[in-house]
Inverse folding.
């Protein structure tokens, strides 16, 4: 039974608290948050104690911590937790600074403790099935990857300002998905973007609509489309063309009902947002972490993976600024 | 080059005139109709002459006739045309009277001339593909057939009154489809029906909504659903369950565009009605007829098939009246 | 916090134990089973005590019982539990005997305790959405209902022999769905069936493939198709035609991945069986029961509903035997 | 009745000959080809005469010519035909040289004769419906366009060598589609490409897989994906994201049959190639040309449109070579 401390009791912390508590192999024992009330409420809900980061890291009975705090604390907490001997599952991204993330990777390496980065989408049953089919060679040699990833609505401007920008905050999921599916880092990155959804996002120095092209050494290409606004729901699709066919992971719809009337045939919308679409993925992610830690095996998504995704995000940010492709 | 006379210049006659004229192996030479103007206009459109039934049947240069007149004339015209040595393609149904249809079958047999009945749906590429897959054994032993067949809107009451009733007029297509797919006649027929769409149809002695169950000697079952009104278009689907799977022929939609909005994901409707949905089937039907006649082979849908479908329709009509299953 | 005793620790009991334990408003305190080991193991898993039916019913601290025992004990346990003041959620069917179920209904009425029958499919998000749309009038006046309900594989012959037959054991779900969607009992029932899937089922006196037509006083019709074998998975679909359109609830697929190759475009299969397809429904069912009991409101599926479904099943059984429609 | 001369009796010439002959408002009177036999055979099939380019252009009774010759002759023939007073429908592209195409545009302008370029896909019912819905404002302000356009199999290497490259030969259709849907020319073009499908295509100086990003002055973005090989058929899809939703035009499948077995649910493939997928588009294209010429209205796709698409193709070619975005 893995005893777990949860650092961060916000929206995503609550998702993880539920996954930790529901898992037969783990138990939530302590919760911390800069907002003490939030920590208390979440802890109470699952029979854990409210605590502080320090206390959790100092508690030798705690085996693992889940880091769900704000991004700017991730690297420090990963380092402190691994130094304290904990296994760590940390939300993406590792850091907003690639240099800092790399330093973190080095520091963690010295501890030998497992650190897994929460790229939950790898555990989505649809994307996982697509990846597995590709790995089985069902479409032959892979050639061209397309990722469509639209949020239902843009975040508030204050969030945008501290987010590190669309590439580090949002598309980093898709960069990791590309790294995951293609099995290697791209050679070059070219980013186009604009703030056509909301000019205030542009005024905040960010884009809300972007297309990024990734090229690989063997001639393969990937293209990622992001928009901060798809009014019909969370649009999350992946397509992979290979020499023997195409794999395509479509959206998960809210239900399977369709209505045929004089106006057409209307089906349900895609699941609203990540909590709905990826709930099963969060559960599977936690299960993978628990299994790896308990069985003393490698975690399926490493800190290196987190650094890799960040490296692509940083290159995309640079490409957008320069207006030209940028090598990784 | 098959020289063809067309008897009947109404809506379905016009469909056939086009198919006859477009076919490289046939030429429309004469058109007749009780409405002389209709015959003239249609004939002119395709460079044929307006004519009369008698003149067409007496013209030894005409190889084949297509009978697209009102149902009550079918048997007589089939007999006269075959006596005159013509090959015949006749619209469904053979007759409203099963006895008369059987007499026609006997009379035609004596002439040795080919008579094909226009159950156009057998040539629909979707239903034909389903049948072919079943015949290849792709779902193993067939067990349970379902046919959904809804018209977009009910016909006028005067038409209902002379139609012979829903089973002879509309569901006869589905009876033929069941005979075609199952490859044998059912043993029993049970019909339920009501005039829930339009009470005036009930007042005219007919039903507008019906479900018919057919049972077969080997334990197989078929069920057919008809409605005179599906406001979203012509709903034409077939499903066949077998020991190794299910074959399903879905509707043909007007286009492949879908629109995702706050209200859902909306696709196009099914093709509006039979002219839209089955145009390719009419063309393929005519091609099959021309090929059979020219190559002196058996036509793919025989007068016996027409009599068989009518036998099921008659049993369904009797079952509805009696409120019990009726043997064939 | 509702304290719950679970009677029956088999496959479906385990499903309910999980739902009871996961619900914030209920706690599993005791589990009984004819197999004491099964009760112990399931109880241990959720921190409950292994117990006996009697002890659970006698324990005044237990508010509610979930009856998941074999069908032949349902009526007795419902009566005993309500006499003991418990609220009851009982698995379908109420009984194999309609007379016994009616007696149970009468006995329970005298206690005034709530009894809910576990027709879980009403809580399936897809069927619930279809029903809600119909109730909102989105397709106008409802006219023709179709239910397709195929199991992936037939049960063992010993089970068939004690099951009460396909209509009471399997199609009873669909009869309840018809009662639920149509909002009234049918007037007549006509059943066709055969043992085409497995002759041994026929030898055991049952059918494995059946089509049942239900007619309603206002001219509406419903048709239900059952097969004990759909090798591609659990096929669970509902269609409802109305004066303004069609509502259709399609299968839930295992994932959204499709693969396009030289051989065609292949998608995932429907969810394998009821545990996969209806897990969300079981959770929602339990939530509805807890809410009703805590808020002292009517349960959404009553014992009367259980008796009604059984009445249709009994009529279908009689119709199959007689070969004619049977009134309800 | 428009009298038409057809220049070019190859595969696409044959498609047009059929469309011309089937149209009630046009008649094919003469056919020319560098291969005299091909011209004779095609002419004979439709009751036209075999002829030469010169004779056709000199024949004052001929109202219009359809240019379906090899690309390197297009500009010359367009100029000659308009000088001879003919209306012209010319296959894409106008020319392999943008400068030559612009000179042609200028020369034609002086004649005042209508010249339409055969970007047949604008007449595909699916893409046309998507465009119409966007123009009606059904998804609000348009923001992000995606075009997927994969051929089933690469062309022979000798063809590749004279094709002008993938951007002028294949993606030019998609550039025109982008111009059509976005309603303006892009500001910048960035092209990535490789010869991952067939190294011989690379050796011939071309690419077989490419992704092109187009940016527009108002912040809109378009991305086009091309591959010379999709083994499952001709993959032709368009998606358009707007402020109020998404429009999506899916592939046209060979039929609507699906087969559910232990291995999954398999549907038909997309139509094989352009003759199958775009036959209706060719017919509609010809009808639009005939209507415009007869009614003396502007043709729906102008020579300027042809020059515009070529300008984007030329920029894409330059971008691929330079490895950076290129302005239009």
């Amino acid at each position: 039974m893995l005893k777990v401390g949860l650092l961060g009791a916000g929206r995503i912390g609550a998702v993880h608290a539920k996954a930790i508590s529901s898992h037969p192999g783990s138990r939530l024992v302590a919760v911390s948050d800069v907002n003490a009330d939030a920590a208390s409420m979440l802890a109470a809900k699952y029979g854990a104690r409210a605590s502080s980061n320090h206390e959790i890291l100092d508690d030798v009975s705690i085996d693992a911590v889940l880091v769900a705090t704000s991004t700017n604390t991730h690297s420090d907490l990963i380092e402190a937790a691994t130094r304290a001997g904990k296994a760590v599952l940390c939300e993406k991204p590792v850091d907003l600074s690639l240099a800092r993330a790399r330093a973190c990777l080095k520091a963690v390496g010295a501890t030998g403790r497992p650190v897994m980065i929460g790229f939950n989408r790898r555990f989505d049953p649809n994307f996982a099935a697509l990846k597995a089919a590709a790995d089985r060679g069902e479409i032959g040699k892979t050639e061209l990857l397309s990722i469509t990833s639209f949020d239902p609505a843009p975040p508030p401007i204050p969030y945008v300002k501290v987010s590190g920008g669309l590439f580090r905050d949002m598309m980093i999921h898709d960069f990791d998905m590309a790294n995951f599916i293609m099995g290697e880092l791209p050679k070059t990155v070219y980013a186009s973007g604009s703030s056509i959804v909301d000019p205030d996002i542009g005024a905040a120095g960010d884009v809300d609509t972007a297309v990024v092209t990734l090229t690989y050494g063997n001639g393969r290409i990937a293209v990622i489309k992001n928009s901060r606004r798809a009014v019909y729901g969370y649009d999350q699709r992946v397509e992979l063309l290979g020499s023997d066919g195409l794999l395509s992971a479509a959206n998960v719809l809210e239900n399977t009902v369709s209505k045929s009337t004089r106006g057409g045939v209307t089906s349900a919308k895609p699941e609203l947002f990540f909590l709905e679409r990826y709930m099963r993925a969060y559960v599977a992610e936690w299960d993978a972490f628990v299994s790896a830690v308990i069985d003393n095996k490698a975690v399926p998504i490493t800190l290196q993976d987190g650094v890799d995704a960040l490296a692509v995000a940083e290159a995309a940010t640079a490409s957008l600024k320069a207006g030209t492709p940028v090598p990784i």
Q: What stands out?
A: The interface with chain C takes residues 22, 125-126, 129-130, 133, 138-139, 244-252, 254-262, 268 of chain A (CB under 8 Å). The two ends of chain A are 41 Å apart (CA to CA).
